[in-house]
């Protein structure tokens, strides 16, 4: 236990302990006590070896306590104030400022040949949430000339993945289509009236894109009317079986629309 | 491949943990080309960045990067946290050297306590100091900790690690101690002669 004390080259405590052990051994008559004695000898010889080591590498006396005090001074300790912490029992008094180790940090790198660490300047791309979009979709009047306006849909935050967003859009458009038909059955909407956004070409293309999902899934269909213009209407949910096999003739249509045409 | 390796080494060096050959295997594959590529990378590091690629330790094919440029005056460009850690490290290395190149853990912590640094207590600057000293500094090879046989409870001795040997010198450290204590380095005769050797 008192290893450090015994190691001190000035102390004879090791010798004293050995002598005491010797005396005690005279009184030993049981194996267990002899074993303890042997254990003690092992420890004692270890300590002895360490003491010898310390003698051998006994550098010129280095006073670590003084070194510590000088370090604290260097770090800016204020010895006139007493630090109000609970660990000031066996610690030399004084207030160590919070930048103490920063002070040390300014001095230390001078003694190291340390390679500066390499960091990319800008870092990698950060993905930002898309700016919230305002979507206004307008539906032109049907042949009756009734004005219908779709509610402007506002996307507060695009948290879902693109796929989900598309699905939601598709759903929304389906609902608009269905709502129109509820109010005005038997009057298919002109396809172009439905998808074209007079204010935005890109938006028009998007609408067409979403509508194509509806067609693909059989939720809406496009036919040509008397004027050979395409019209769109939602498919009736009933009568799927046979109708499907008949109306299952799905045709692929490629519509090309460029900005001039759109205008 | 050489430039890939150079970039890899630079980035991997950020944590100051030695780089093993196995780490590099995605970039250069074993074979006769390996040493050539490594040599060329070393040359580029030296000529372009002034850094030296050094093999260290008893395990072969383990490398660190050190700074080969003469020390410049002025501020050292480095994060404050890193500098503070270097401060603590310098103090520890000085203590070890001045005490004969090897100290027991008890003695080291007794000394650090004097500086208000305690192994069991969260430090305002260093956090878990024990972890910093026994894990981070040793993984970076600044310190080497070995257990002392036949001690119960187990005790450890602390010595300079191979990175410390390369990045600093006993002479520099002695100068540091001398500066702090306001004495001439020759004041400690045997340390001085060892440092000059």
Question: How would you describe this structure to a colleague?
Answer:
The complex is a heterodimer of chains A (263) and B (197). In chain A, 45% of the residues lie in helices and 8% in strands. Chain A is elongated, with a radius of gyration of 45 Å. In chain A, helix 2 (13-26) runs antiparallel to helix 3 (31-56) and helix 6 (162-183) crosses helix 8 (201-216). In chain A, strand 6 and strand 7 form a beta hairpin. The model of chain A is unreliable at 86-90, 135-160 and 239-248 (pLDDT under 50). Among the domains of chain A are: 1-56; 159-234, Structural maintenance of chromosome 1. Chain E (Arc Repressor Mutant, subunit A, Orthogonal Bundle). Chain A contains ten helices and seven strands. Chain A has 263 residues and is mainly alpha-helical. Chain B is α+β, with helices and mostly antiparallel strands and 197 residues long. Chain B folds into two domains: 1-67, Arc Repressor Mutant, subunit A, CATH 1.10.10; 80-196, Arc Repressor Mutant, subunit A, CATH 1.10.10. Helix content of chain B is 48%, strand content 16%. Chain B contains eight helices and eight strands; from the N terminus they run αβαββαβαββαββααα. Chain B has a three-stranded antiparallel sheet. In chain B, strand 7 and strand 8 (155-160) form a beta hairpin. Chain B is globular. The model of chain B has no long low-confidence stretch (mean pLDDT 89). The interface between A and B is large, with 45 and 65 residues.
């Amino acid at each position: 236990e008192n290893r450090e004390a015994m190691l001190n080259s000035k102390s004879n405590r090791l010798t004293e302990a050995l002598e005491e052990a010797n005396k005690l051994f005279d009184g030993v008559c049981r194996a267990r006590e002899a074993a303890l004695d042997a254990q003690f000898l092992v420890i004692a010889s270890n300590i002895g070896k360490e003491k010898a080591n310390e003698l051998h590498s006994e550098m010129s006396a280095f006073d670590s306590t003084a070194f510590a005090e000088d370090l604290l001074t260097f770090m800016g300790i204020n010895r006139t104030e007493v630090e109000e912490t609970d660990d000031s029992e066996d610690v030399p008094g004084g207030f160590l400022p919070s930048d103490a180790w920063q002070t040390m940090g300014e001095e230390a790198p001078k003694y190291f040949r340390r390679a500066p660490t390499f960091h990319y300047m800008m870092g990698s791309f950060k993905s930002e949430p898309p700016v919230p979009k305002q979507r206004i979709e307008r539906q032109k009047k049907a042949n009756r000339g009734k004005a219908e306006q779709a509610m402007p849909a506002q996307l507060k935050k695009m948290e879902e993945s693109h796929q989900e967003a598309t699905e939601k859009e598709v759903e929304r458009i389906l609902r608009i289509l269905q709502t129109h038909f509820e109010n005005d059955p038997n009057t298919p909407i002109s396809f172009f009236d439905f998808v074209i956004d007079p204010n935005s070409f890109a938006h028009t293309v998007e609408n067409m894109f979403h509508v194509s999902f509806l067609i693909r899934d059989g939720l809406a269909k496009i036919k040509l009317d008397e004027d050979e213009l395409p019209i769109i209407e939602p498919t009736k949910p009933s009568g799927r079986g046979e109708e499907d096999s008949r109306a299952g003739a799905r045709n692929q249509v490629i519509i090309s629309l460029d900005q001039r045409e759109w205008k | 491949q050489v430039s890939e390796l150079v970039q890899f080494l630079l980035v991997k060096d950020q944590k100051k943990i030695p780089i093993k050959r196995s780490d590099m295997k995605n970039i250069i594959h074993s074979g006769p080309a390996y040493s050539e590529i490594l040599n060329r990378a070393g040359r580029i590091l030296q000529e372009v960045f002034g850094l030296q690629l050094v093999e260290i330790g008893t395990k072969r094919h383990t490398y660190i990067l050190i700074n080969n440029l003469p020390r410049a005056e002025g501020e050292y460009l480095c994060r404050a946290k890193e500098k503070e850690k270097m401060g603590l490290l310098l103090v520890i290395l000085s203590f070890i050297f001045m005490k004969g190149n090897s100290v027991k853990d008890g003695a080291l912590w007794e000394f650090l306590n004097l500086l208000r640094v305690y192994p069991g207590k969260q430090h305002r600057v260093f956090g878990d100091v024990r972890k910093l000293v026994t894990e981070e500094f040793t993984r970076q090879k600044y310190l080497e900790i070995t257990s002392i046989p036949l001690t119960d409870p187990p005790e450890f001795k602390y010595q300079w690690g191979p990175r410390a040997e390369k990045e600093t010198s006993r002479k520099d450290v002695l100068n540091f101690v001398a500066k702090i204590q306001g004495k001439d380095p020759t004041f400690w005769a045997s340390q001085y002669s060892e440092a000059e050797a």
